[in-house]
Design brief:
CATH superfamily of the largest domain: NAD(P)-binding Rossmann-like Domain
Structural class: alpha/beta
Strand order of the largest sheet: 8-7-6-9-10-11
Number of strands: 11
Order of helices and strands: HEHEHEHEHHEHHHHHEHEHEHEHEHE
CATH architecture of the largest domain: 3-Layer(aba) Sandwich
Number of helices: 16
C-alpha cells in the first residue's frame, strides 16, 4: 500500500486506486483526471461516501469522454473513534462491480481479511452504494426505538437498561446500539439519511419508518431538557454543567451530538451552561459560538452549578470522585443522559440521580 498526494504519479504507476475523500464534491473531476493520466484503464475503488447512482454516473461520464476505467463501489463502515479497528476487523467487505477481474484484484488486496473469514459480498454498484445508507438508517431506527421504549419505562416503573440487556440477548436483535439515551450522530450519519430519504422521495417510495426514527432522534435533546426542567422546576437563571460534548466517546466529533443540542436548548431557555469534554471542545466552540463557558476539568464544571448533566458516555466520568463532586455542586443533582453512572452508589451518597428510562 502506497500513500501519496501526487495524483499524477499514482495514475501512471498504479493499477488499483482507492478514492477515499470525506466529500464526493470533487470525485468526478478526480476520476476523469486519473483516467486521462493512466497508462492503462485503472480500477478505481470508490470508498468516499456517495449517493446511490454515483458509480453509474461516473461510468457514463467516462464513456462520453472516450476514457476507460473500472469503477468499483466499496462502502466502508468506520465508526468514529474506532476507525483503525473497524478497518482491520470489518464485519463484511462489500464490492459493487460487474468486473470479475476487479473483484479478484480487490480480494487479493484484502487477502488477510478474506483468509480470516471476513464475508465478501459481491453485488452491483447501486446495491453497494445503498448498503451504506440503509445500514445508517437501520441503526438510527434501532436507537430511536430503544429511546421511545425508555420513555415508556419511566411511566410504568420499568428499567430500560435491563430491558435493553434482555432484548440484546435475543439473537434476532443483538445488543449493539440498544443503549437508552444514545443519539444517532457522526459526520456522515445525517448526510446518509438525507441522501436515502431524497432518493426514496424521488422514486415515490415513502420511508415512513426512517422518517419516524429521525424525528425521535431529533427530539431526544428536547426530552432531556424536560428532565432537567422537571428536576429544577425551571432552568431560567440556573447554572447547568454538562460533562461531554462529543456525539459519542472516543471521538472529537460533535456532528449530530445530542449534548450540543442539549446545550443550545438550555441556553435558549435562559440557563447558564458550562461544559467539559476531554477532546471535543475545539469543535464544540465552532458549533456553539461562545454561547457557553468551557472548563478544563469535570470538577470545574461541577463547581457551583444547580445540576450536573452527563452528556457523553466517556468512561473517565465513572472514575470521578463523587464525594468531591457533591461538595462542589450547589445542589446534589445528577442527570445522567447516558445511564453511565452507578445509580445506587450515587443515591447512597445523597445525590438526586435521574437517568433515562429508569422508572
Amino acid at each position: 500500500m502506497i500513500y501519496s498526494t501526487d495524483i499524477e504519479a499514482f495514475a501512471r504507476k498504479t493499477q488499483v486506486i482507492f478514492l477515499a475523500e470525506d466529500s464526493a464534491e470533487n470525485l468526478s473531476d478526480v476520476v476523469m483526471r486519473i483516467a486521462k493520466l493512466a497508462a492503462k484503464p485503472p480500477i478505481l475503488t470508490i470508498v468516499t461516501p456517495v449517493a446511490v447512482g454515483t458509480a453509474a454516473a461516473l461510468e457514463a461520464s467516462l464513456k462520453a469522454a472516450g476514457l476507460k476505467a473500472t469503477i468499483v463501489s466499496q462502502p466502508m463502515f468506520l465508526t468514529d473513534g474506532c476507525a483503525v479497528e473497524d478497518f482491520n476487523w470489518p464485519d463484511r467487505l462489500i464490492l459493487g462491480s460487474s468486473s470479475n477481474e476487479a473483484v479478484q484484484m480487490l480480494k487479493q488486496i484484502f487477502h488477510p481479511l478474506v483468509m480470516r473469514g471476513v464475508p465478501v459480498i459481491v453485488t452491483n454498484q447501486s446495491t453497494a452504494e445503498l448498503v451504506r445508507e440503509a445500514s445508517t438508517a437501520f441503526v438510527a431506527t434501532k436507537i430511536s426505538f430503544i429511546n421511545e421504549v425508555a420513555a415508556l419505562c419511566e411511566k410504568v416503573n420499568a428499567d430500560a437498561v435491563n430491558l435493553a440487556l434482555a432484548l440484546g440477548l435475543d439473537k434476532k436483535i443483538a445488543p449493539r446500539c440498544l443503549q437508552p439515551g444514545a443519539g444517532m450522530g457522526g459526520v456522515f450519519a445525517e448526510s446518509d439519511m438525507d441522501s436515502l430519504a431524497e432518493l426514496a422521495q424521488s422514486k415515490g417510495v415513502p420511508l415512513k419508518v426512517l422518517g419516524a426514527a429521525r424525528e425521535v432522534n431529533h427530539t431526544l435533546a428536547d426530552r432531556l431538557v424536560e428532565k432537567i426542567v422537571t428536576v429544577l422546576n425551571s432552568v431560567a437563571n440556573k447554572d447547568v454543567g454538562i460533562l461531554g460534548l462529543a456525539f459519542k466517546p472516543n471521538t472529537n466529533s460533535v456532528a449530530g451530538s445530542s449534548s450540543i443540542r442539549l446545550a443550545e436548548s438550555l441556553v435558549s431557555k435562559g440557563a447558564r451552561v458550562r461544559a467539559y469534554d476531554p477532546v471535543a471542545i475545539p469543535d464544540a466552540k465552532v458549533r456553539l459560538n461562545g454561547s457557553i463557558r468551557y472548563c478544563e476539568s469535570a470538577y470545574a464544571v461541577a463547581e457551583g452549578v444547580d445540576a450536573l448533566v452527563v452528556g457523553t458516555g466517556w468512561p473517565e466520568f465513572r472514575a470521578l470522585d463523587f464525594e468531591r463532586i457533591k461538595r462542589l455542586l450547589k445542589m446534589p443533582i445528577i442527570v445522567d443522559t447516558k445511564n453511565l453512572l452507578d445509580a445506587g452508589r450515587l443515591r447512597a451518597l445523597g445525590f438526586q440521580y435521574v437517568g433515562v428510562g429508569r422508572g
